[in-house]
Amino acid sequence: MSNTDPSSGKTPARPTLKAVRGTRDLLPAETPLWNHVEATARAVFARYGFGEIRTPIFEDTSLFARGVGEETDIVSKEMFTWEDRARAASEKAQQLTLRPENTAGVVRAAIEHKLIETGALQKLYYIGPQFRRERPQKGRYRQFWQIGAEVLGAPSSGAESPLRDAEILEMLAAYLNELGVRDWKLELNSVGSADDRARYNAALREALQPVKHLMCEDNQRRAETNPLRVLDSKDEADQAIIDALPKIADFLSPDSRAHFDAVLAALDACSVAYTLNPRLVRGLDYYTRTTFEFTVTTGLGTQNALLGGGRYDGLSEMLGGPRAPGIGFAIGEDRLILTLQAQEELGAPSSTGSFTAGQGGVGGTKKLDAYIAPLSPAQNPAALALAKELRAAGLTVEVGEGSFKLRKSFDIADSLARHILLLGEDELATDTVTVKTFATGEQSKVERTALIAALRP
Ligand code: AMP
After folding, report:
1. Pick from 67-71, 124-128, 149-153: least confident
2. At what angle do helices 162-179 and 31-47 cross, to 10 degrees?
3. What is the Å distance from ligand 1's center to 409 Cα?
4. Ligand 1 binding pocket, CB closer than 6 Å
């Protein structure tokens, strides 16, 4: 955009500001579906005994370095971190980070508020934005939303039980089914205990030694620093090598094996279908034993992971807290919405029809009960007072403007509302309103006292 020559006397044009790369605005045509997805999560999670937790959007950087792991892509490349200056001599400068995920924050909060010490099982859910400096593409943003939940507690609370793993997975299946998500697939693995993982890591390192020079640069680095991460690699050329690597299943201790088998037995009892995926180790360092992902075939393209999660039995201790085994998940809300919208476009029946029908208009797709058109600016105050009265009675109402031509008022009203209410001198003098119902084309004068009943759907 060029600035206008100042000598011409015109105000120089200012560059147009846009949302930052990787972030986006959600407009009223879309937010009803977001609210529906969130309200359904709240309702379903409540049935399973979860309470909501809201943690800060930024935290001390070391929370993520310790919790998520220095060697992960998230911490090494993707965090929005800044040096926060001390504002007074009594304050110290500190490094802060916009949260890239919410599990570390929830566990920090549970430790800080001594929730583990209560001895009770903690079932907590959150809904909120997360931030990662990833390369933006469809389904991958730098600010994105997650709906997640965590179950954790002292060992005596039963937090370690395989029943908890199965319960979480069954709840996710119930949630996706209630939303009408079709064709979801649950992929499941066990990455074992911290000891199992250490033995497996050593075996991987050894197996990678003679072949790693054939792999991409990223995998060569991972083979050294964090061999488990090689299994996450999407690099096409490296897949044959990766498939031939040792499998975690062969390194599980009898305890880990029994835990995983008990999770599978409970899922079978609840008829939740799953596929075992021995390569599913997930991107974060804190996972132990059960790990899982739900993928979908519609709408997400290459970013087909709708949600992921797993058990993190050592995380609390890593953050300086008491022993508190736990398990949790995070749903990519942006991706869930993309999936539902794509299903809708394909004509698949779902519970979201009324949210994506695409009629446009204020507040999404549902028509307002009434549009009040004052016939001249003199009736503007009376129109606003009438709107106040109708809204107080629970009706949805928009008010026009007395300077509009009648034709314009009718056009706007027709696009927004089921009725237009005309308010002129006559109507005010006789305590009536002229009401036209668009669906039938009927028009009549209605007494003010009978108006609310006449407008109710
Ligand atoms: P993760 O903790 O990385 O497994 O993330 C859990 C879920 O969050 C993923 O399965 C995605 O659905 C979603 N997600 C992760 N990163 C992004 C992103 N950059 N943009 C949108 N969704 C994301």
Report:
1. 67-71
2. 140
3. 45
4. 101, 132, 134, 139-141, 144, 146, 283, 305-308, 330, 332, 334-335
